[in-house]
Protein 1
Amino acid sequence: MGAILRAFTSEPGFTEDFCKVRDFLRRIHDPAYSTANWDWVRWEWVQSLPYLDETKLSRIGVWEDEGRVVALANYEFKLGDAYFSYDPEYACLKRDMVEHAMRHLASQNEDGCRALQLDIGETDYEFIEIVKELGFTPAESAEHISVFYNTGEVQPAPLPAGYSVVSMAEENDLHKLNRVLWRGFNQPGEAPETEIPGRIKSQSGPDFRKDLALAVKAPNGDFVSYCGMWHAPDTDYAVVEPVATDPDYRRMGLGKAVVSEGVRRCFAEGAKVAYVGSGQQFYYSIGFEPLATTRKWSRTW
């Protein structure tokens, strides 16, 4: 029986269909990240954030073979971008996935002009030829993936006197968390209280673990750096997402310390590698190495 396309559920939240896709993404995880540029952590994290346009969920394409998910074409937060995941045995679906994205995942302006940006692995040459045939051209932007291999004990990064690492399992102060994430992502001024419901939602995913959500606590009690770590018991890898440091506390080694501690905890649980969706020198200084790159391809019609 061949793969059959259906719409993802239109119901927001961590539904049975959400879990079905999450489990598919875990199943096809490629240790070399050569075929999958959208892992289960990203899937769950996006579904946990208030920025997601939940009114378009039914536009996500899911391919199943006898009830088993084998491919996915989805957007991130809103229409206009597309990401693809597939079981290697169903690579024949690549063209169908792009055509689905063109029909259902493109954005549209008031003049009726449609635009779509795809995320394709730089070494997936078959996929590249398909998107070129369908009129897409490479854009300047790209996404980078880096890896930290578990080759032994992770060396802890030192903290200045009076600073400590705490987990949200120990002190889940949403106001402190809101402030470090707001300021850490360079938002202006003080963090508004209206962001608190979004912080609560960000911890609502079925695989979110407060013991792996870590913050550096300053002598005055504020959270000043943050690192979210994701590790599921039935996987042998961890993922870093997100990382932020208050601008007033940068260049003190706090970000390095909290990420190193997060990686250390996941390795202690049995993770063989840790991934981060970044190619910044900051991560290389901790021990990450470049692994893979996905290139953006765009078309307007």
Protein 2
Amino acid sequence: MPRWPLILLSLGALPWVAAAQPEANSRGALLYATHCGACHDRQVHWRRQRLVTDWPSLVAQVQRWQATAQLGWSDDDVQEVARHLDATVYRLAQPTAAAGAGLTR
């Protein structure tokens, strides 16, 4: 049996597989790896006294630590890093339009 049908099926499935995975080379992932990864391993996000409990607190913590490190990130940079952390670590509930006013995702 020729293998090309399997290859075509595999290629057809790639967009859905890629969409389900957080993009490892997203801007948020690169900013986090460059500026945060040296000190923050995965365990820092799972410590017992975790400060992140929802989307606003995640954005606030990213904003807090980029300011502490004097990184000068834009609001878009903060949002991208928060999205990266949410996709890879926190998996928080999506904010509703009313509850998340001013906090885009």
Protein 3
Amino acid sequence: MKFSFILFLIMITLVQSCSGQSNDPVTYLKQSAVAVKSADDLCQLIARTENSRFVLLGEASHGTHEYYLWRKRISKRLIEENDFSFIAVEGDWNAAFQVNRYVKNLPGAAASASEAVSSFKRWPQWMWANEETIALAEWLREYNMNRPPEKRAGFYGIDVYGFDESMDEVIAYLKEHHPQKVDAAQGAYSCLTPFRDNMHDYVHAVLQGATRCT
């Protein structure tokens, strides 16, 4: 399996000129866009990604059913036909990893995709804790079932809003595997303790010149 991934995100597309293409964004899009009205129309798009390592699937809103539906269809074909390795979403790492455990059938995995996505508790919870994500996770688990562990496609989050949960995970891991390092880790995290309940206070502190935890 090649190392390649699909990135789900909200994005503003900046159109850059390509060889033989117009510098005008409207003209460029007219020359390059592919109209997609049915699943059959995806063939041209999938063919374009044959030699790509990264595919970015953007959307214009959080939580619109049609965007999730088409991302699922595109993702399935990229994974099945072009052997993509994983999906990376604009979501908390910790919560998304519960979905990853489920789709890869790892130890400690949830009993269902519905239970796995319930780990998304931070705003916007409904961005990933929804029926479309559940359907994608169930499909991905089924797809992975007959594949060796090292070739199972994953599901990961790229946001780090949950820094407090991440600290807890690190301390719990160290207590179990490297107890002699717990004090050092807790000391390193001590400057973040006042901000555990409100990440915005940390941001404001940094803006005001705080450097101890930056």
Protein 4
Amino acid sequence: MAVPGVQAFFDAATSSFSYVVWDGGSGRAAVIDPVLDFDASAARTASVGADRIVAFVRERGLALDWVLETHVHADHLSAAQHIKSSLGGRTGIGGHVTAVQKTFGALFNAGPGFARDGSQFDHLFADDEAFLVGDIEALALATPGHTPACVSYLIGDALFVGDTLFMPDYGSARCDFPGGDARTLYRSVQKLYALPESTRMFLCHDYKAPGRDAYVSETTVGAQRAGNLHIRAGVSEADFVALRESRDATLSAPRLLLPSVQVNMRAGRLPAVEDNGVAYLKLPLNQV
């Protein structure tokens, strides 16, 4: 199995990891889950973090094939459009993003101008669809549960799982968002655990479990299967569902949920400017 290069970029404000993954032979690359800086108190965006990715790609002399999203994130705004406008490449996400767009298009009363067909993205991946990053074979694996549209990307021996799993000492993703389901997440994780134990697994977030000093972006399928706090080998579906649903009942909404989803369901675009030349994000009152 091919071994691509992988470079992680950490966004401390949202505890998020973005990645550049590349084929050393062809010099072709993909960017996964890029983060746009957002100051919620001032409603101001910036691209400081995303520009670190742009600089890395240029310094390495890489050419971008893809800007990939693992799902419609609820905790940070996507910098997909900034990356694409700076470096090229095609935006991609799992085809079930349309379910998320229908739900949140209604919540935000986005109107007929907001398409619910995924057309904001350049490509919608079908379940288990093969593609390439340079000459490295890749696969888009549907892994719903956290959201109905979550997809993991297997690029050579590197697996990018989005929010599906965290580090083994921290556990698994919440499943209480619209369309999320703990039973579905359990089955998605089993699909990932069927991959070779040595498969490198790259995570979208780390929150540092108690007793651990450093943020960590990478583990392996084998380490997750042997020791994940919530969903290791031997944990039954029923036990996982009970644990996950009990834990989810105690969680508050993510701090950037409402601004993030409005941008991310548009593939990282801000809402259209209004007749005064200003774009607005909505806050639906008493709905979340």
